[in-house]
Amino acid sequence: MHRIYENNEIAVFWNSDNCIHSGKCFQESPKTFNPGRKPWIQLGVASNPEIWKTVEQCPSGALTVVSRLGVDVVVETDKCRSAAYDGNRLVGECDYRVTETGWIIYHTEVDLDYGGRGIAKRLVYTVLETAERNDVVVSATCSYAVKILNE
Ligand code: SF4
Predict the structure, then answer these.
(1) 100 pLDDT band (50/70/90 cuts)?
(2) For residues 108 and 141, is the Cβ–Cβ distance under 8 A?
(3) Does residue 55 sit in the same domain as residue 90?
(4) Ligand 1 centroid – CA 4 distance (Å)
(5) Which of 108, 117, 124, 132 has the fewest CB atoms below 10 angstroms from its CB?
(6) What is the pLDDT of residue 97?
């Protein structure tokens, strides 16, 4: 299961397949990480530095974090994509094809000026989470999305 949680400054990714239930996250930042609550990750209660530090201590890599840097990522199901915007400017997208058996991610691209900021990961996670929440099977031919799926 792939989930992405965002506030104004950071985006936290969680891949449940990699979680070894060490308990480290909810020991370090219990206001943010609480397995007895839905959603179990809530940003905006603890400080972002505390959350960042906690994520970095996840022993399995199930949690990761990037700065949002003013770029918004949204899902646009009418266009079969997730899209990244800096204001009104489209700076990245992750496109999928709808088939009888599920969604196939075939293209992920971020403007060169915006590379290295974790935007591609946010784009792919947004598609994965949307598909998973709708019980849609998702696969990929795009090499970047394949890498995220296999992380
Ligand atoms: S620290 Fe990482 S591995 Fe441990 S419970 Fe939290 S998410 Fe799972």
Answers:
(1) very high
(2) no
(3) no
(4) 15
(5) 132
(6) 98
Mean pLDDT score, 66-88: 97
Ligand 1 centroid to residue 16 C-alpha, Å: 9
Please report the atom of ligand 1 found closest to the CA of residue 28: 1
The CATH number of residue 11's host domain is 3.30.70.20
d(CA 6, CA 38): 15
> Cα(117) to centroid of ligand 1, in Å?
23
142 lines ligand 1 (CB under 6 A): no
pLDDT at position 138, please?
Answer: 97
Give the model's confidence band at 114: pLDDT under 50 very low, under 70 low, under 90 confident, else very high.
very high
Single-letter residue type at 137: V
For the whole model, what pTM was predicted?
A: 0.96
CATH number at residue 102: 3.40.630.30
- Whether residues 123 and 138 share a domain: the answer is yes
